[in-house]
Specification:
With 173 residues, the protein is of the alpha+beta class. It has seven helices and five strands, in the order ααααβααββββα. Strands 2-3-1-4-5 form a five-stranded mixed beta sheet, with helices on one face. A hairpin with a 5-residue loop joins strand 2 and strand 3. It binds FE2/S2 (inorganic) cluster. FE2/S2 (inorganic) cluster (FES) binds next to helix 5.
């Protein structure tokens, strides 16, 4: 598989999504969510945001504040797999930082980037923190590709990611 291009989605695709929501005025979140889902790198490129703003008659600053306010919008290319470590209070007091440090060490990163996430250079995995996911009784909690893992230890999380990588290598051969 060749490298995936970092670029905006085709305008026709964006138009199609926007038109699909035409009857609803409070639809910008849904439009952005759908566009992010359509992008092969699961993010909203700047050009895409600018074009949506233009089509919806919004100022660029308005659309950027929407995209930055909600943590589920990504403004940078994401890895094919995702690990999220809950950083809510319950998880924080039960070792979320250790989980985060452990998983970063597993992928060879010293720390996250300024936006609190880290994506491996080959874009295999993105690691990030997430606000409380509502499973505090199971703290500390991490999500691997959306699956919630409760009362997880650093070792278990690292092993889960290692197994995922092994499985993928195996499937490729
Ligand atoms: S604080 Fe982590 S699930 Fe609530």
């Amino acid at each position: 598989m060749g490298p995936v291009q970092e670029k905006s989605l085709p305008r026709e695709k964006i138009d199609e999504v926007i038109e699909g929501f035409n009857r609803n005025t409070g639809d910008v979140l849904s439009i952005l969510e759908q566009l992010q889902g359509l992008h092969p790198l699961k993010y909203l490129p700047r050009d895409t945001l600018m074009y949506v703003a233009e089509r919806k008659g919004m100022a660029p600053s308005q659309i950027f504040s929407v995209a930055t306010f909600y943590s589920f919008f990504n403004l940078r290319p994401q890895g094919r797999h995702g690990v999220m470590v809950c950083s809510g209070t319950a998880c924080h007091t039960r070792g979320a930082k250790q989980l985060m440090d452990g998983i970063l060490a597993e992928v060879g990163a010293a720390k996250t980037d300024a936006d609190g996430s880290f994506t491996t250079p080959d874009r295999w995995l993105t690691v990030r923190t997430v606000a409380c996911v509502g499973q505090c009784a199971m703290a500390p909690v991490a999500l691997v590709d959306g699956e919630i893992l409760g009362r997880i230890s650093e070792m278990h999380l690292r092993r889960t990611v290692r197994d995922l990588l092994e499985k993928e290598k195996h499937d490729e051969n």
